[in-house]
Amino acid sequence: MKIFTAQQIYEADKSTIVNQQITSDELMERAATQLFTWLHSRLQGAPVKIHLFCGIGNNGGDGMVLARHLQEHGYLIGVHVVTYSEKRSQDFLLNLDRLKERKIWPNFIGPNDELPKIDKEDIIVDAIFGIGLNRTPDDWVIKVIQHLNNSRAFILSVDIPSGLFVDKAPKNEDSIVRANHVLSFQAPKLIFFLPQTGIYSNQWEILDIGLDRDYLNSVDNVYELIGKNEVLPWYKPREKFSHKGTYGHSLIIGGSYGKIGAVILASDACLNTGSGLVTAYIPTCGYIPMQTALPEAMVITDTNEKMVSDIQFDITPTVIGLGIGIGQDNITTGALKEFLRTNKTPLVIDADALNIISKNKEFLKMIPAQSVLTPHPKELERLIGSWQDDFEKLDKAKAFSKQYDLILVIKGAHTITLYNGKGYINTTGNPGMATAGSGDVLTGMITGLIAQGYDSLRATVFAIYLHGRSGDLAVEQCGYQALTASEIIDFIGDAFLDLFNVQEGSGPQEEME
Ligand SMILES: NC(=O)C1=CN([C@@H]2O[C@H](COP(=O)(O)OP(=O)(O)OC[C@H]3O[C@@H](n4cnc5c(N)ncnc54)[C@H](O)[C@@H]3O)[C@@H](O)[C@H]2O)[C@@H](O)CC1
Ligand SMILES: Nc1ncnc2c1ncn2[C@@H]1O[C@H](COP(=O)(O)OP(=O)(O)O)[C@@H](O)[C@H]1O
Ligand SMILES: [K+]
User: Fold this and answer.
1) Where exactly are the structural domains of the chain?
2) Which CATH class is domain 230-501?
3) CATH topology of domain 2-220
4) What are the distances in angstroms from CA 490 to CA 39, 252, 433, 444, 483?
5) Residue 54, SS3?
6) What is the predicted ipTM?
7) Which atom in ligand 2 lies closest to the alpha carbon of residue 415?
8) Measuring from atom 24 of ligand 1, which residue has the nearest CA?
9) Of 319, 332, 407, 476, which alpha carbon lies 20 to 30 A from 5's?
């Protein structure tokens, strides 16, 4: 699903008005009627007090229309207009008049006015600012926003939580509404998925307001949301006359004394993702545990007992997963440099291999093009330097990926894969996955898909989806706290099967049949 900038949404608005031959007022009516239908179907006429806090732009206009529909259906409403500017939008004014015609007199709030009392059992509709916010609200408006946040009432935000910018980071945390639920028009917004801004939308939902499809399809978007619909068309079925050679040979290089388990997890995940063959390259101390824990994997040992010291092997792997549990000893750093100097096989680089590379930036040029780097936030910072906010992080990461022609994964609650100026935002996964070794599992999964012939970018985005889905399916059985990396591996098979699990609304399955 595409994610649009504010500018693109305004363009979509305009082209909808032209191509569907409607007025902007009719579009607002359509959008706000959807808000009403959502709320009405849940409240069913309940006598709860609904406070609508409206701005003076089109987000406020949506609030005005909603107020009218609620009143017509007998709801107990209070309409408050936060008069933060003289420049009232036409559609706001039109709908304000319609309210007045129905004898509803809004309470106009200015800089020195007393704020209405809100009980915690009430509902707040937040329609103060939408995607038009272009500077931090004035201090007195921030006080209004704080009043809403402090009320402990349920807050339903229209389009986005008021106070958030769509395309940049907020400057003042107090200026943002903390929404319990956001009803966002037409498409999800990037801010829902970034750690700094995502916290203001506890839950969000999209309302399809029928914006011009042709325009939206033609837009060149930077970010895309990845769900089942996006990954399913990439799935490669197993061929009847195939053999294990068809599905590639993965080599997992890593491990050190006390961290052999990381390689076991990655190798196991790689096999479960469908790699035809998996070989682990580890220090000698790992030989017996590895062979015992994972009989399906082959093992090549380094000459060193406790760490990787000289990477030599006589196999021809399709892809190499590198760095899990490898440590940062000088001997290993030397081995890595020597290996990168001659290696031409695509790499998936994780953990301490990333840390070694961060300390020796000259190694970066030796990495084959379109290899994959999977840092968690700390590793990313070592790699690309610090950032002021999430937007700067994305820009720096995109530039880094372009400079070295690498696929860069930013791991987190919504893992984002960056390549060639584009970003792919994952939708699966849960906080139970914040557990030791879950990153090792991901490295094994990405490696396993590349081995099977998926191009590196698709393999990465697809593996991240499957990894999160495995975690989601596992958590249903064991709960968040008990979820371990091994459990994620146990559910990889189910995550694949789930791709073909036809449920209501899962469109692409129908296309497959
Ligand atoms: N295509 C869509 O998605 C539709 C959008 N609609 C609504 O329209 C909204 C956007 O409306 P607007 O563009 O009028 O913008 P907003 O209603 O978000 O903001 C109002 C105006 O206030 C001014 N402003 C910005 N920051 C300010 C600040 N800190 N202090 C004082 N004034 C400030 C700006 O001039 C801005 O246009 C959307 O979020 C959505 O709710 C709907 O009405 C219908 C269709
Ligand atoms: N709150 C969360 N929600 C969803 N996924 C998460 C969350 N926390 C962590 N993860 C996922 O778990 C993995 C953790 O990777 P990493 O930090 O490298 O772990 P480790 O080093 O222990 O293997 C990443 O894929 C990340 O996206
Ligand atoms: K809002």
Assistant:
1) 2-220, 230-501
2) alpha beta
3) Rossmann fold (3.40.50)
4) 40, 19, 14, 13, 11
5) strand
6) 0.91
7) 27
8) 133
9) 407
